[in-house]
Write a structure and sequence with these properties.
The protein has a single domain, classed as Ribosomal Protein S5, domain 2, CATH 3.30.230. Strand 1 and strand 2 form a beta hairpin. It starts with 10 loop residues before the first helix and ends in a 6-residue tail after the last helix. The protein contains three helices and four strands. It is of the alpha+beta class. Helix 2 packs across helix 3.
């Protein structure tokens, strides 16, 4: 489980991310990232030191909540380990959206896709 201060919560935060962020695609998931600009949304409680990450696995992926939650847990674990090692840049809102093909992917393929997306958007610290 991610720490509360690292969770992307509420529809307003997701709306900001989708309106302002840039997409990065991988084989089994897509990522949307937005560098926090304090002057753009002054009424929001964003800070330059924030790093908020969210995960979305829709009903179109599977009608079974068990399968959707399993995918979400795998994605969350990859991010948790990267955060533990301080490998993700701060000051961003990041959202991960699963594609249909993610049901066949194992943990390592999901990890590769997340790292690929982070590298492509230059958010991964080497």
């Amino acid at each position: 489980m991610l720490a509360k201060n690292n969770r992307l919560r509420g529809t307003k935060e997701w709306e900001v991310l989708f309106n302002e962020g840039a997409f990065v695609g991988a084989r089994d998931l897509t990522m949307k990232a937005w560098k926090i600009e304090l002057d753009k949304y002054p009424r929001r409680q964003f800070k330059v030191t924030d790093l908020k990450i969210g995960f979305s696995v829709g009903v179109k992926i599977s009608k079974s909540a068990v399968k959707r939650n399993a995918v979400r847990r795998k994605m969350r674990e990859v991010i948790r380990l990267l955060l533990k090692e301080n490998k993700i840049k701060i000051g961003y809102l990041i959202g991960f959206m699963a594609k249909n093909s993610i049901l066949e992917a194992d943990y390592h393929k999901i990890e590769e896709d997340i790292i690929f997306c982070l590298k492509k958007s230059r958010l991964l610290i080497q």
